[in-house]
Design brief:
single chain; 214 residues; alpha/beta; Rossmann fold; four-stranded parallel sheet; 9 helices; globular
């Protein structure tokens, strides 16, 4: 992606307020904002999984500086204003709450996404707890609206996990010309499985944000 001449700033997983049970969506949004250089005027935000929600809260603060959004196998706000709301009727929220320790949801076993060996160990090395509060809180109305006002915007879905909320999000976006939506073969953590493919399509969204074609 660096070949497109864009200033890229990564948000490391370790910057999430992962060990603070009081860290709601706004605290996570502040972590996103902390990773963006104050002089950056052309910002493209990328959010994976839960990360899409604090990304959208951060987009409200950034305003017109945001030139694009990319959701990577992520929760889509129109399907539920909170993370747990998108899993109503399933055992997921109850299982997460039951396994929580002192208000912190514990990292899942990477095996649930089909990872094993070196890839599973790489996933475990960066996973950390999240406050249950962040999964229970609803997005602000401004953040809910932001996703419909920013272009370009894209959604990349993992081909595995047909019953996941991420697959429902991908299917909900089919046929919408205002979205670049596509599917990559692999599991939810395909940044570990298919990094080159993911980097390519992230690069295409950067080109769109810069007003260029593929």
């Amino acid at each position: 992606m660096r070949g497109h001449g864009a200033h890229l700033q990564s948000l490391a997983v370790t910057t999430w307020p992962g060990h603070n049970p009081d860290a709601g969506l706004q605290a996570h949004a502040e972590a996103v904002l902390a990773g963006i250089p104050p002089e950056a005027e052309n910002v493209v935000l990328l959010g994976h999984s839960f990360g899409a929600f604090p990304m959208l809260e951060a987009a409200v603060t950034l305003g017109e500086r945001v030139k694009g959004l990319l959701l990577i196998d992520a929760f889509l706000p129109e399907l539920g204003a909170s993370i747990f709301a998108q899993s109503e009727g399933s055992s997921g929220p109850e299982a997460i709450q039951a396994a929580a320790v002192d208000g912190l949801a514990q990292p899942p076993d990477p095996a649930i996404w089909g990872l094993s060996g070196v890839r599973a160990e790489a996933a475990r090395a960066v996973m950390q707890p999240h406050a249950l509060r962040a999964f229970e809180e609803e997005l602000s109305p401004a953040a809910m609206a932001a996703i419909d006002t920013i272009r370009p915007r894209g959604f990349i879905n993992a081909s595995a996990h047909a019953r996941s909320p991420f697959r429902r999000a991908f299917e909900a976006l089919q046929g919408r010309p205002e979205w670049l939506s596509l599917q990559i073969e692999g599991s939810h953590l395909f940044h570990l499985e298919r990094p080159a493919a993911l980097a390519y399509w992230c690069g295409q969204l950067l080109r769109m944000a810069a007003g260029r074609s593929f």
